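tokens incoming
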């Protein structure tokens, strides 16, 4: 009789313990945070529409990788006349504005580098305002692309924060990165008879130096 009582009590304690563990597990499941996917769905219609809204009808586009947004589309609009302002615009996967920049070009000479993007995840656009080539670099930020650096007082083609005039784009090299070969003329005794020198610019994590 005593054995039966002990066994009965043991079984009761075991059932109670199991119930408590199950209750704790259920509570844990109920209070566990829900992880939501923040990725923006790609919308081709919104991308096309907003590129045109920013720049006017674009002539060429590239889809590139953006480190924060996953996907971006860059569009180019060349000027309708021989000389004038072209336009570079970038939008995110849902068509959101990432960058818009007018740029002075000659004879429609505005194009993407080939490839348009290198291992730095910067995007490269080649332009010519009438004499020498320039390279615009679209540098990703957390929410889009960095400002090119042309203020209202400076012509939209000269060397600035993220644009480099009178240059040649080289590569990509073995590291998957472009370098920029920049030319300079000391114009002594005059520009026609001056000494031309070159310098190779490399990406330092923020710009080309």
């Amino acid at each position: 009789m005593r054995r039966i009582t002990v066994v009965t009590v043991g079984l009761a304690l075991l059932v109670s313990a199991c119930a408590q563990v199950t209750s704790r597990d259920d509570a844990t499941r109920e209070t566990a945070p829900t992880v939501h996917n923040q990725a923006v769905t790609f919308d081709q219609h919104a991308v096309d529409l907003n590129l045109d809204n920013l720049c006017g009808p674009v002539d060429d586009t590239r889809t590139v990788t953006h480190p924060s947004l996953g996907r971006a589309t860059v569009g180019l609009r060349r000027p309708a006349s021989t000389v004038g302002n072209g336009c570079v615009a970038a939008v995110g996967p849902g068509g959101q504005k990432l960058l818009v920049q007018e740029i002075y070009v000659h004879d429609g000479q505005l194009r993407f580098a080939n490839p348009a993007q290198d291992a730095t995840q910067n995007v490269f656009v080649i332009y010519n305002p009438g004499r020498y080539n320039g390279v615009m670099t679209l540098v990703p930020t957390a929410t889009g692309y960095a400002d090119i650096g042309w203020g209202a007082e400076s012509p939209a083609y000269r060397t600035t924060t993220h644009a480099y005039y009178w240059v040649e784009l080289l590569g990509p090299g073995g590291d998957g990165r472009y370098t920029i070969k920049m030319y300079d003329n000391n114009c002594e005794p005059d520009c026609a008879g001056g000494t031309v020198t070159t310098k190779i610019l490399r990406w330092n994590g923020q710009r080309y130096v």
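note: The CA atoms of residues 151 and 160 lie 9 Å apart.
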